[in-house]
Amino acid sequence: MKLFTRRRRVRRLDKDLGKGLWRQAHDRYVRGLDRYHQVIEGVDDDAVYNQLVLIGDVLSERLTDVYELCRTAHAQHPGEGMHVPGAARPLHSALSRAANHLATAAEAAAMVRLGSAEVAAVRRRADQVLACVKDAGDGE
Question: Which residue, of 34, 94, 118, 120, is most buried by count of CB atoms within 10 Å of its CB?
Fold first, then answer.
């Protein structure tokens, strides 16, 4: 049954986001979240792990916003390629920065896992992700 569920989800994403620019922006955010959660699974200290999970939950809550922003953008600027329409440049830029900051948050979490950084570094990077998603929503 998982195969059919996955196919339905992929078809819905294709319909709502297309297969080009906006799908890529959404998928980059999803991959960043997956990477973040994979990294924190190896944290041994329960207190640190719990803090990182809370940060991850906040980042995951923004996935709905990213999806809606990409869905709306695809409806307004449809296309299957990677060309960024001029009017959509600020939105795409903010979504791209959010995904990049999410990747650096996962990187910071890996450093925390290795004992080379503090949770505050992850929190700072997560705040950058949230600010970029907010900018994307404000600039829409």
Answer: 94
